[in-house]
Design a protein that fits this description.
single chain, mainly beta, six-stranded antiparallel beta sheet
Length: 78
């Protein structure tokens, strides 16, 4: 899973690019250049293993992201 150093380096508003490693019902395991993070998918959108994904940090404590869709909009997740 993600290291403390990686988690502490995240800033609100930061956009991260990752690859989907695994899909578990309403959660996706994202690989951020070797840092793995399990992200809840509450968007209703389907994803595929190996698909690139962009996430924006919207809150630090607790950590929350928005998934960036190809349409240019963000959808809230965990």
């Amino acid at each position: 899973m993600a290291s403390r150093a990686f988690l502490k380096s995240l800033k609100k508003g930061q956009i991260l690019r990752a690859t989907i490693e695994e899909i578990q019902s309403a959660q996706i395991l994202c690989n951020f250049e070797g840092e793995l993070l399990l992200v809840g998918n509450h968007t209703g959108k389907s994803f595929r293993k190996g698909e690139p994904i962009s996430l924006q940090v919207i809150h630090i404590d607790p950590l929350q992201f928005q998934i960036f869709s190809g349409s240019g909009s963000f959808q809230r997740v965990i």
